[in-house]
Amino acid sequence: MEKMRVEMEEKRKRQARKIVKAIGGGVMKKLKAKEQEIEKIGKLNWALEERVKSLCMENKIWWDLAQNNEATTNTLRTNLEQVLAAT
Fold first, then answer.
1. Tens digits of per-residue pLDDT, 44-73?
2. DSSP assignment, residue 1?
3. Which H/E stretch holds residue 5?
4. What gap in Å lies between CA 66 and CA 76, rounded to an integer?
5. What are the CA-CA distances from residue 27 to residues 8, 13, 38, 62 (Å)?
6. What's the CA gap between 86 and 65, in Å, rounded?
7. How far apart are the first and last CA of the chain?
8. Coil, helix or strand at residue 71
9. Global pTM value
10. What angle do CA 54, 58, 64 make, to 5 degrees?
């Protein structure tokens, strides 16, 4: 009777270990997939940050060019007004 109880207990423990192993394997698989997803999103985020930096620099170049063109326009307008006033 005791031997049978011990065997049943061992069988129950083996089954429990199998269940835990199966669950653990699934959890590890999901965890690895999430880690890969996080890594992929991290790389995408880095690429987007680099793109934003590039666009900010391009924006500054265009802004400076517009300011320069505005100053040139004002100078030309003033020169034209002076020429027209002199005639």
1. 999 999 999 999 999 999 999 999 999 999
2. -
3. helix 2-86
4. 15
5. 28, 21, 16, 52
6. 31
7. 127
8. helix
9. 0.60
10. 145
